[in-house]
Amino acid sequence: MVYDVIESMPVDKNSGVLSDETMRLIGYYSIKKYPDTRRLIVYEDFEAGKVYHFLTNNFSIEDPLTIAELYRELYNQPTLPVNVPETEAVEQLTLW
Asked: What is the DSSP code (8-state) at residue 4?
């Protein structure tokens, strides 16, 4: 992902938020499909030892930690089982 940083906001790194930047994608196809600015929040989950990069167009929530926690919870939800329709019983073949 190629982008220009337009603005970097100050963050409290003790909260887990490593950066909060307003950016614009600058790749040839990216700028055509996504001309608006985006917000890139980098968050480290200290307990899991993972670093997340969240790309969003949400500028209405000012606190980057709130956005990071919302997205982290969204993507860490267990996958629900898919209902597979029951198929007709298949006759077992015995090969000797």
From this structure: E
Q: pTM to 2 decimals? A: 0.75
- Name the phi and psi angles at 44, rounded to 5: -110, 125
Q: Give me the mean pLDDT over the 19-37 stretch.
A: 93
How far apart (Å, rounded) are the C-alpha atoms in residues 46 and 17? 10
21-48 CB burial, b ≥16 within 10 A, e <16:
bebebeeeeeeeeeeeebbbbbbbeeee
> Which tens digits make up the pLDDT trace of 37-80?
999 999 999 988 899 999 999 999 999 999 999 988 887 766 65
Task: Spell out the long-range contacts of 18-21 with Cβ–Cβ below 8 A and sequence spacing 24 or more.
Answer: 18/42, 18/43, 18/44, 18/51, 20/64
